[in-house]
Amino acid sequence: MEAHPPRHVTLGLFIWMASLPSSPIILATASSCDFPAIFNFGDSNSDTGGLSAAFGQAPSPNGETYFHHPAGRYSDGRLILDFIAESLGVPHLSAYLDSVGSNFSHGANFATAGSTIRPQNTTQSQSGYSPISLNVQSVQYSDFKKRSQIVRSQGGIFETLMPKADYFSKALYTIDIGQNDLTAGYKLNLTTEQVKANVPDMLGQFSNAVKQIYAVGGRSFWIHNTGPVGCLPYSLDRFLITAAQIDKYGCATPFNEVSQFFNHGLKEAVVQLRKDLPQAAITYVDIYSLKYTLTTQAKKFGFKQPFVACCGHGGKYNYNSQRRCGAKITVNGTEVLIANSCKDPSVRIIWDGVHFTEAANKWIFQQIVNGSFSDPPVPLKMACHRTENP
Ligand SMILES: *[C@@H]1O[C@H](CO)[C@@H](O)[C@H](O)[C@H]1NC(C)=O
Ligand SMILES: *[C@@H]1O[C@H](CO)[C@@H](O)[C@H](O)[C@H]1NC(C)=O
Ligand SMILES: *[C@@H]1O[C@H](CO)[C@@H](O)[C@H](O)[C@H]1NC(C)=O
Ligand SMILES: *[C@@H]1O[C@H](CO)[C@@H](O)[C@H](O)[C@H]1NC(C)=O
Ligand SMILES: *[C@@H]1O[C@H](CO)[C@@H](O)[C@H](O)[C@H]1NC(C)=O
């Protein structure tokens, strides 16, 4: 039996249909999706403990605001993914790689900080990128789906730790990855043109991963595009940028252009995926615009110092790649924290030079949840409904 939608939902869809005559149509009778689980793929923007489990915990003061201890996240608190989970009534996701205390009854997180779409030809110690690239995450997901059901069938406590079989087709599949593929090119001293030339391969591998997840049962996809890397202290500090390349707000134009180039291609790849995967509902979410707006109009939204990391160690951006957030030195046999948090992370956007504060993540989540930055413009709760072109 299909429940009747609340009146305001129906109304919202009618307004949307009226204002976008050539756009896909959703049945006005569509009901909220009731996602029982979330499976996430990505990098540090959505890592809830994967890299920490495999390569060492994100140090204190990460986690200080919400968890009050390091919690596998590169932020003072919750990530956009945590807010998505909360709003769907699903517990925060355990990292697939975390063998201590994890509970996968409502999904699993395959993201690790530093992940790229394409496997890198450098090791993690050489370049800092995670070896758990998207293709690996996709293999882990397939393996998880199969083995979780074998474990679940043992009953008892095992049954409460693994998702029910039907959750895999009903779940929301969230993906946020690509940023590191772009910076990895620059780290190899490629020019912007050379980085752009690699984007089709990145997108081809991205689409393959989505197809593999679909083949193993995924149906509802919520895909974040990549942010303006040229506004991050990390990029501004790390790469050679001329004054002429800085826009009127302070962001590095070439890096933002490459992000936009990637996003343009990602949007086209999503259009193709909708054709290739007849039962998939795929929502593309414009995180770039929100992060750029927040950074360049920080004051308007109650934030301060958009180019200065809250947690870091000095310099123009309070960012030092050798002494990142949580860095310690030993003075006379005693460990001293030299890259600590700022006084009030709740009014800051950038946490550690690369990642966003909980306050910024919450603001972004509040903008995306109702679908106003999505294509098609469906709210999060309706993202299981495939839209058809008339
Ligand atoms: C790794 O090297 C192979 C062979 O040269 C190349 O085809 C591929 O694009 C490289 N990958 C990356 C991420 O640079
Ligand atoms: C796992 O999480 C679910 C949902 O929160 C809960 O019902 C279940 O008891 C948990 N299992 C264990 C062993 O804690
Ligand atoms: C990139 O260029 C810098 C500066 O010239 C050099 O130190 C570094 O080794 C180069 N990196 C690679 C991967 O070629
Ligand atoms: C380290 O110990 C020495 C000897 O006790 C002292 O002179 C020095 O000031 C100490 N350094 C710091 C940074 O505390
Ligand atoms: C969506 O939410 C944002 C933030 O609360 C709000 O500014 C915007 O007007 C909303 N858009 C729609 C279409 O409801």
UniProtKB/TrEMBL annotation:
Organism domain of life: Eukaryota
GO molecular function, one term: hydrolase activity, acting on ester bonds
Signal sequence bounds: 1-30
PROSITE patterns per UniProt: PROKAR_LIPOPROTEIN
InterPro entries: GDSL, SGNH_hydro_sf, SGNH_plant_lipase-like
Record has Hydrolase as a keyword: yes
Keyword Cell cycle: no
Keywords carried by this UniProt record: Glycoprotein, Hydrolase, Signal
Family membership noted in the UniProt record: Belongs to the 'GDSL' lipolytic enzyme family.
PANTHER family xrefs: GDSL-LIKE LIPASE_ACYLHYDROLASE (PTHR22835:SF117), ZINC FINGER FYVE DOMAIN CONTAINING PROTEIN (PTHR22835)
Full protein name: Early nodulin 8 family protein
Organism expressing this protein natively: Populus trichocarpa (Western balsam poplar)
